[in-house]
Each structure stands twice: as structure tokens, then as C-alpha cells.
Input
Amino acid sequence: MSMPAESAPAFEARAIIADLRAGVPPKPGALDWFARGLASGEVSDAQAGAFAMAICLNGLADTGRLALTRAMQNSGMQLEWDLPGPVLDKHSTGGIGDCVSLLLAPALAACGAYVPMISGRGLGFTGGTLDKLESIPGLRTDVTPGQLRDQLARTRCAIIAASKQIAPADRRLYAIRDVTSTVDSIDLITASILSKKLAAGLEGLVLDVKCGSGAFMKTEAEARVLAQALVATAQGAGCMTTALITDMSQPLANAAGNALEVIAVMETLTGMSVDPSLWDLTAALGGEALALGGLASDAADGAARIEQALESGAAAEYFGRMIAAQGGPADFVDRWPDRLPAAPVMIDFPSPLNGFITAIDTEALGNIVVHLGGGRLRETDRINPSVGLSDLVGLGQAVEPGQPLARVHAATQAQADAALKQLAAAYTIGESAAEEPPLILGKIT
Ligand code: URA
Output
């Protein structure tokens, strides 16, 4: 008896990999099959590694990149919303002192949007929004899709981890890319980021693609290529998307470290001490998002609405509701200085010279925070939320010998001493002031 034709397997991992290796575009349906196989386990680790390497070496072209993104999006649950306002979100490619998400989610909510912000943990030398938020005692980020739905209806915004049901093909492939030197492919990065965002059922997405010494993309040209791929792919998948290319040649906030960045956020949210870069980037990204969602006539109108939400305290109110809904202290907005952990050792790093800050190795600052215990060297490491750097001086600033360039917050004196040594190599002091780069370098629509 012959097998019915339709029950023969339509695809086979080896054949898909062979096509990719030869630079032959994948057949229609092949990437869907592969993504399902990643999620179900039918595709082995070796096959997934070879698949990633073939894409890294040969690329997928626009059509293949979109097909892979959709395939990974469809490998798990799709969130669907029926809410009386647009569902919007922001994604940053990662940097140092980048705590914009914590300001932007409640500010967008205060302007009428719904924000199911599925965020990540620290990656390499960059900090992660979930790690920062979890420095707030009691706060949970692992909520089920049902809990997310309830929270969004009540508080309009949530910042949470991706559940296992969202884009499971990405979860598996990402872990394999991490150990097969296949992370830095525009196609794989695009499919990875967007599969999770598209599965969250967004109507509009704004992307912050960072470039400079503290970003994965070191040059503006590289950032532009990634931004173009992300925007074209997201729009091809039906999600209105705008990207800003932004500077990361110095830390965004003047602090780097989990609780220390929450302090910078709370100072800005409550008006106690506004960080101008945080404020400006939150307004610019939020303005784009509100324009995409039809809550502002254009990006400038949107930015003005975000600034109003920050100034009036409305964003702080939404932030407080979100924190309480996720298990944090109900009085956090009023009592945050008492609620956040503080490191036992605090020591200033003095400028060795007279002059101007001409360059900052921002990646090195991120690595100092990781080694202080504010990030992970191994997947299983526990984060110390209290450690990091604060009072960071920025590019172009005039400095005198002995003037603090940064304050180290450490768990032990030995760790603080090691950080002081590394800080000496991270700052370049010259005789004349270099021009400070603009915060926003470009926009891709
Ligand atoms: N963030 C992701 O989610 N995936 C990548 O590949 C890179 C950054």
C-alpha cells in the first residue's frame, strides 16, 4: 500500500540548510516548517546551529527575512486585543544607562495608549529593562498572558518578560546563536526582535537603534542598515513602525546599574532632578509612537503630549499603578528613596588630569557594571541590583584634577578598587572640548 502523497513530509531540515548554504532562496513554507521544528524539538541543535550559520554567511534577502520573522512569530501564541485605544510599544537595541522604557511605558499610557511592553534582560555589556525593574522589591515580571490582559485593562501599561508561549522558535534559536557565534546577523537579529513584538499584537512600534561605543552597532552606517531592515520587515508584517537612530557614544542617563537607573527614572518622573537626555529621548520616541497610533497629529505634537504627561505627574501616576499591579510597593512613587537597595561601598573616581572629556569607552562602563555584579557573566548568575556607577560626567565636560568623573557603588572594597582601575581606561581627557554628538542621528520610516 502506498502512502498518500499529502502525508509525506513536505520539508526536511537537511534540504532547507543545503539551500541556505548554497545561497538558494528558501522554498515557500520552508521557514515555517523550520520554525515549527525549532519550537517542537523536531529540528536538532546541530541543525539549528547550521541553519543560523548559513543565514549569517549568505543572508536571506528582504523576502526571506520577512518570511523567517513571520515563521518565528507564528511558532507560538499571538496576543490579540480589544481595547479602547491603540496598542503601542518601543524597542531599543540596547545601550548603557538606557532606562527610557521605564519612563515611556507609563507616559504613553497617560496619553491614551495601551502598552504591553515585553522586555529583555541584560545582554552582554548592555543593561536589561527587566533587571532594572526587578530592583524594586516584590516586583514580578513573569506574568501569564491572562494576567497581562487583566493588568493592561486596569493600568494600561505593563513591563514583563516574554512567556514561553511567545515566539518559542526564537527562544530556542537565540540560545543556540549565543554559543555558535551567529548573533550578529542583520536577518537573525531582525527576525528575533520582531517575532516577539509582532506576536504581542502591536498596532504601532517605535524602534531605538543605537550606535556608538556603548551599542552593538558601533557606526551610524551599521545602525542605519539594521534600522532599515527592522522597519521594512515590521511594515511588511503589517505593523506601523518608525525607527530613530540614536547616539550611544556616552551613557544615556548619568547612571548605569539597575537600582541606580531606577533612581534616575524616579528623579525625572517626579521632577526632582530631570535628566535632559532621558527626557528628550523619551519625548522623541513617545512622540513617534503616539503619531503612529493616531493619538497625535505628528511626531512633534506627540512629543509635546509626552512632555505634558511627564510634567503634570500623570506618567508618574501610571508608573505607580503599574508597579503596584506587578507586586511592587503601593507607595513606590512617594517612597522610592526608602524602597530601593543601596550598595555598602561608595567611592568616587577622581579625574587624573585637567581638560575636557573627549571620548568615553561606553562598552567598558557597561562591563564595569557587569563585573560589579550588576549584570551576568554566566546565565545562572544572580544580579546585585544595588551596584553600578552614578554621577557619570558626559562628553565635552571640562574637568579638573581630583574632580569626580563617576561614583562607584560596590558590594565590596575589592570590587570597588577593581572598578576604579577600569574606569581610568574608559575616559579620555584632551586639551580641547570635542563637539558633543546629537542625541538623535536619523529617522527611518
Ligand atoms: N535582541 C533580541 O531579542 N534578539 C537579537 O537577536 C538581538 C537583540
